[in-house]
């Protein structure tokens, strides 16, 4: 009997542990998405601000040069910087998206395991209910048999012969010679 309570308690602990894992994973995914979006937009914003400063510096420096080659050389750094920032932002976005996707797959697996745990518990509850119904049926069957037995005397039961349709049923009489009256 202690094993039954131990199993039920263990299942309850499994439910609680699984629920806590699922909620932790959901919060982890939500926080990861918020963090990714926050940092991604900060990278873009700071990149644009730095790009503006680089363009201003390039413009000021290009005014002092006379040839087109020297002027374009100043602007190359700002264009190169914008390409690098864009690439880093996309790489950062890709890495966090893959991390979030991995966590979502883990969450799906946890949800499937939790559903299996629920289904097993439902199945076990259905089996327990079925066993209880079978016990009730067997008890009713025994009561019916016991209530029918006192009505019948303790005589050995004789096999009944099948009736033929043309013959009337004869009362059971022992084989005794009939006495003439």
From TrEMBL:
Keywords: Membrane, Transmembrane, Transmembrane helix. It comes from Dictyostelium purpureum (Slime mold). GO terms for cellular component: endoplasmic reticulum tubular network. Residues 145-181 have a biased composition (Low complexity). GO terms for biological process: endoplasmic reticulum tubular network organization. Residues 141-181 are annotated as: Disordered. Coiled coil: none annotated. The chain crosses the membrane at residues 39-60, 75-96. The keyword Transmembrane applies. This is Uncharacterized protein.
């Amino acid at each position: 009997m202690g094993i039954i309570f131990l199993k039920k308690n263990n299942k309850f602990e499994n439910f609680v542990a699984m629920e806590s894992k699922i909620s932790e994973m959901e919060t982890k995914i939500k926080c990861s998405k918020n963090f990714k979006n926050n940092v991604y937009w900060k990278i873009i914003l700071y990149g644009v601000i730095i790009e503006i400063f680089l363009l201003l510096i390039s413009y000021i420096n290009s005014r002092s040069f006379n040839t087109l080659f020297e002027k374009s050389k100043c602007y190359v750094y700002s264009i190169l910087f914008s390409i690098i920032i864009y690439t880093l932002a996309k790489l950062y976005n890709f890495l966090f998206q893959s991390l979030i996707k991995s966590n979502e797959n883990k969450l799906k697996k946890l949800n499937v395991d939790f559903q299996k745990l629920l289904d097993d518990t439902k199945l076990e509850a259905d089996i327990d209910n079925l066993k209880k119904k079978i016990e009730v049926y067997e008890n009713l069957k025994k009561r019916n048999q016991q209530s029918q037995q006192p009505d019948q005397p303790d005589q050995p039961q004789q096999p009944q012969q099948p009736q033929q349709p043309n013959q009337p049923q004869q009362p059971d009489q022992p084989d005794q010679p009939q006495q003439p009256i």
